[in-house]
Design a protein that fits this description.
The chain has about 550 residues and is an alpha/beta fold. The protein has 19 helices and 20 strands. It has four domains: about 90 residues, Four Helix Bundle (Hemerythrin (Met), subunit A); about 120 residues, Response regulator (Rossmann fold), CATH 3.40.50.2300; about 130 residues, Rossmann fold; about 160 residues, Alpha-Beta Plaits (2-Layer Sandwich). The protein has a six-stranded mixed sheet, sandwiched between helices. A five-stranded parallel sheet has the order 2-1-3-4-5, with helices on both faces.
């Protein structure tokens, strides 16, 4: 009888603890959601010029985050939010736009805060639980089987979906709430262009355009495609609807991660002119560094790592063209846009300057709006080009060289900050059989599906790369071995359940993984040790996660 009471009490304690943990996870989502709201306001602030209203919005969102973090005892969020608050109050007291130093510090704090916020599909509480986007994805396709199949694919990657088979069903959903994105049949209800007309009406009523992906059973002509573009269509699919590609497009369209402010190096010998330019940049939320002595340019490039350089043509001791030539002689700075900002009116001299490493020539005096518009255009293009250089073309993940560079960088940071760091290597099981059985395009789709899952399930602070072929590498910063193994194993289990469509049928795929934690002795051998752990996972039967630092009993095996 006593033993039975003890067992009952133990079960009750376990149930109470489980409920307590579940309740804590539920309330922790309030903090995470508020972080996301703050990040959204920050993103909007950096897309526009700083204004008193945007500053009020930032302060309000951050004050709410402080209240939530205090109430739910989220100390890491609280510490960051309080620092952000002090900085925003100082900015509000001085002037609307922050100084370069204030903006630099604020950007760093916001970036750190964004790393604490789990993205949709990331892990929260128990490793592997899925956080779906706040807004659903509406799917309005005539083919119900196709629509439901797409809905399942999107839901696997963490999206909430609503399938609407008719115009009436779609309108009913729109009255309830606006979606994050829409997948719309061009000829909804089998009526020519009805889907496009409906979307055009929707876009006319909303403040921000809703990303829409159009689908047509036929190969749409130019007039249909133009009409779809004018209605806010970001993609147009015809005939066969490739599910995996649509998932990627929805992911890209709904990604709201805050872009970091542009970093601008200003080389101008006149202090008055230099600080006038800096004021314009600060008002636009850009981080700038001013140097009035061009002889300091190499040191500034190394320490500041600018994305754009603004430079006067005529300076003491050298010309802007000479400085541009020096910069372009170094391979790592070849892709940085250089903009000449000068009072020079002679077109021939302007063109001559452009031939010496310049990307743009702006004549003084220049309107602030013109300067900022040029910088934003050049900055977006520069970032896109750099992304192409450092990322794998198939998956969008870091390429082999860059993931190893990211690993080296994180090793140095972990050693300096004395924080844990783990490195994982993944390899798709029996991948050759997939290519042989279904063809290389299907094999590529499997690789892209895993890449997308990794991007969704890992933090922004985790570096993810395609190591080669069907092999991936992950750098898990500030993560201990036990958590790293649980994270990778949850991804492994989730991926193994995914059904890859092929010619009216489906198949499933698994991967094996090796994980290792950085210690005082293995920094230079981390990739070798992780590869050996991956080999153990393959040798032991595949579809499992192994680590050389865990006993076989503790290794995750399925």
């Amino acid at each position: 009888m006593i033993e039975k009471l003890k067992m009952d009490n133990t079960q009750l304690d376990n149930k109470t603890n489980a409920q307590s943990k579940a309740l804590r996870r539920f309330f922790a989502k309030r903090v995470t959601n508020q972080v996301r709201l703050l990040l959204d306001v920050w993103r909007l602030t950096n897309q526009e010029n700083w204004s008193h209203q945007r500053l009020k919005d930032l302060l309000s969102a951050n004050e709410k985050l402080i209240r939530y973090a205090k109430h739910f005892e989220e100390d890491s969020h609280l510490h960051l939010a309080e620092e952000i608050h002090h900085l925003l109050v100082a900015i509000n007291k001085d002037k609307v736009a922050p100084s370069s130093d204030q903006l630099y510090r604020l950007t760093d704090l916001i970036q750190t805060l964004s790393e604490t916020a789990l993205r949709k599909g990331d892990f929260e509480g128990d490793i592997g639980s899925v956080i779906t986007p706040k807004k659903p994805i509406y799917i309005a396709l005539n083919d119900q089987k196709q629509g439901c199949k797409l809905a399942r694919q999107l839901e696997f990657f963490g999206f909430r979906t609503e399938y609407c088979s008719t115009l009436e069903a779609f309108n009913t959903q729109m009255l309830k709430r606006h979606p994050a994105a829409i997948v719309m049949d061009v000829n909804l209800n089998q009526e020519a262009h009805l889907g496009i007309n409906v979307i055009q009406q929707v876009q006319d009523r909303v403040e921000n355009t809703i990303p829409t992906i159009f689908y047509s059973e036929n190969d749409g002509d130019i007039f249909t495609r133009l009409k779809a573009c004018r209605a806010g269509g970001i993609h147009f699919h015809s005939e066969d609807l490739e599910m995996g590609l649509v998932v990627e497009e929805v992911e890209a369209a709904t990604q709201n991660s805050p872009a970091s402010p542009l970093r601008i190096l200003v080389i101008e010998d006149s202090e008055t002119q230099a600080f006038a330019i800096q004021t314009i940049l600060n008002n636009a939320g850009m981080i700038s560094l001013i140097i009035t002595d061009p002889m300091l340019v190499l040191d500034s490039l190394e320490t500041f790592q600018p994305e754009i350089i603004i430079m006067d043509m005529y300076m003491p001791r050298c010309t802007g063209m000479e400085v541009a030539n020096v910069i372009r002689q170094q391979e790592k700075y070849v892709s940085i846009p250089i903009i000449y900002l000068s009072a020079e009116e002679d077109i021939e001299k302007q063109l001559h300057a452009m031939s010496h490493g310049g990307d743009e020539f702006l004549q003084k005096p220049i309107k602030a709006s013109h300067l900022i518009s040029t910088l934003r255009t050049k900055g977006e293009r520069a970032r896109a080009l750099i992304s192409l250089m450092v990322r794998d073309s198939l998956t969008g993940l870091l390429n082999h060289t860059r993931i190893l560079q990211a690993l080296d960088k994180e090793i140095l940071r972990a050693q300096a900050n004395k924080t844990p760091l783990c490195f994982a290597m993944l390899d798709i099981d029996h991948f050759k059989n997939i290519n042989d059985s279904y063809g290389h395009p299907v094999g590529d789709r499997v690789i892209k599906n895993l890449a997308l899952l990794l991007k969704q399930r890992l933090r922004k602070s985790d570096a993810i790369g395609r190591y080669g072929g069907e092999e991936f590498a992950i750098v898990l910063s500030n993560t201990n071995l036990a958590d790293a193994v649980r994270i990778c194993d949850s991804i492994r289990e989730h991926f193994s359940q995914f059904r890859h469509p092929i010619e009216g049928s489906e198949f499933q795929v698994t991967f094996s993984c090796g994980v290792v934690q950085l210690d005082d002795d293995n920094g230079e051998k981390l990739t070798i040790i992780a590869d050996e752990a991956l080999y153990d996972a393959k040798h032991n039967g595949r579809n499992q996660v192994c680590s050389p630092s865990l006993s076989e009993q503790d290794s995750s095996s399925h």
